Amino acid sequence: MEVVILGSGTFIPLPERSSPSLLVRSEKANLLLDIGPGTLRQLSKAGLSFTMIDYVLISHFHPDHTADIIHLLFVLKNTDPSFVHPVTILGPSGTKDFIKGLQNAYRGHLNLSPKLLRIDEMGKKSRRNCKDLIVNSYPVKHTSESIGFRIEDISGKKIAYSGDTGLCEDVVQLCKDVDLAILECSFPEEYLKSWKIDTHLSPSDAGKIAKEANVKNLILTHLYPECFRIDIIKRCKNYYRGNVIVAKDLFRINI
Length: 255
Ligand SMILES: [Zn+2]
Ligand SMILES: [Zn+2]
Known about the structure:
alpha/beta; Metallo-beta-lactamase, Chain A; 7-stranded mixed beta sheet; binds zinc ion
């Protein structure tokens, strides 16, 4: 599998970090994991196109993870059908209502034929076949609907993506023995502690999860500017001895 980080940032507009999204590619499938504002433009910057997307996996409904759904549906609706192929949106429970709400707000300009758009709600622990990839959802600690995704290819390689989450046992299970874990890393622990936030991870939390789950490689993403006031790799490596990469937009890795 190839992973392309499209957005390594958050809802804060920054020139160098777009909102959350990444692409997982196999021989047969192209999966977009989250689709924050600017995702389609990031795809084009990576030399790729929205027309290649087979599946959009949504971790939760926060706008920084979903806003470019609007752009995707609108551009699909207005593109010559011979250039596009069907897209399946896989999301947590409530995804059908969420998309319907957007379609109503945009007065039908996002309505696609059922041949072009399929919406599939995953439970908190469910499994789907996406062409040559297997996707499993796991509950995570963020909003009531939030899920993370574990993706496995036919050779048995495994990638885990946390979406947004706090530290919890489920996220350790999500990451268990994967070749690559892509974990959110929002703020250093002193900020989370002083704001009493337990629905995001610090670099130390990400390190603890990676160690406990026996992860082979770790990417830290969903980085707020506060993360760059400290050495996040050092904080993470206090707990985890494996390979740690700080995500950058358009970074690519093969697993
Ligand atoms: Zn969120
Ligand atoms: Zn977020």
